[in-house]
Design a protein that fits this description.
A hairpin with a 2-residue loop joins strand 3 and strand 4. This protein starts with a strand and ends with a strand. The protein has strands spanning 2-10, 13-23, 25-32, 35-43, 48-59, 64-89, 97-125, 128-137, 140-145. By secondary structure, the chain is mostly beta strands. Strands 1, 2, 3, 4, 5, 6, 7, 8 and 9 form a nine-stranded antiparallel β-sheet that branches.
Length: 146
């Protein structure tokens, strides 16, 4: 997996973003019921998973901030995978069982986008900072108090 992140703030504007992708190889380790499951998957068709996020915040003043955020997730490629899972009892590392799987599924072309417009108000209550976030998501207003 490859990742890239940036953040740049000057005066009242903050611009930020991330990008990551996984191209064909995946590792996973799970611990369940006293056993460890170590999986290594080779994606023969090199399924590509990509995600990107970017946004901007404008600091109106010390108490008020407005922001805009865009998030995108993309999946491209076929679906022929070979997976090998080694199973061991914790805390030992000796492999007791193994599970090999081959999966073949149709090609994917998934594109998902999210857009977020938000407002943050900071107010003081007894020398503590409290925040109120208002987020607009597709005709839904989400309020969060921290």
């Amino acid at each position: 997996m490859e990742n890239l992140a940036f953040n740049y703030r000057v005066n009242k504007i903050n611009v930020f973003g991330t990008y990551n992708h996984t191209l064909g190889y995946y590792n996973d380790r799970q611990l369940k019921n006293g056993k460890s499951y170590d999986s290594y998957m080779i994606d023969v068709d090199k399924l590509q998973k990509m995600a990107a996020q970017t946004g901007v915040d404008y600091f109106i003043d010390e108490k008020n901030t407005v922001g805009f955020f865009v998030n995108g997730n993309f999946i491209f490629g076929g679906g022929l995978t070979n997976t090998a899972t080694a199973i061991a009892t914790i805390p030992h590392t000796t492999i007791e069982e193994s599970l090999d799987a081959v999966n073949d599924y149709y090609g994917q072309n998934t594109k998902r986008y999210n857009f977020n417009l938000n407002y943050k108000y900071t107010f003081k209550i007894k020398s503590k900072k409290k925040y109120c976030f208002v987020t607009y998501l597709k005709k839904l207003v989400y309020l969060q108090y921290i």
